[in-house]
Amino acid sequence: xxxxxxxxxxxxxxxxxxxxxxxxxxxxxxxxxxxxxxxxxxxxxxxxxxxxxxxxxxxxxxxxxxxxxxxxxxxxxxxxxxxxxxxxxxxxxxxxxxxxxxxxxxxxxxxxxxxxxxxxxxxxxxxxxxxxxxxxxxxxxxxxxxxxxxxxxxxxxxxxxxxxxxxxxxxxxxxxxxxxxxxxxxxxxxxx
Length: 192
Known about the structure:
The protein is mainly α and about 190 residues long. The chain has 8 helices and no strands.
């Protein structure tokens, strides 16, 4: 019996987090009641799972960042040449980022756990960029911390392109990954 309740509680939490992301992406000031309604649950159920709005935002931050780490891991970045790994990671991360537009647009980690996950994401990104540098894809004297910031900026810009709705490949993660990687490695200069 306890096991069924546990699975039910997990489904409720997942429904609340998914609804919160959707509702807050539309209206950052949405109430807990609006989130509960979107999740198909009562406000009391939401409060049973999350003591207050801040606890819900913290859970969103942790969940989104954990999904980013899972996306990076699923790409198996250490198992392929750096260019292939960079493309896989980028496509996977873009898929996650399009699912979490509200939460991942708020850079401040809400908890120690979210901050630790963000540190892990940054470390993984630096390792991959370091591999790209050692394989000659990035200049040997490039500042990898700056390159990481540029890469993160390109990821956000790829998702938020104003012309994405008119472009048939506008939200295709592989096409966007190619755009991001090409811009990161070659900029706007001519290609040889």
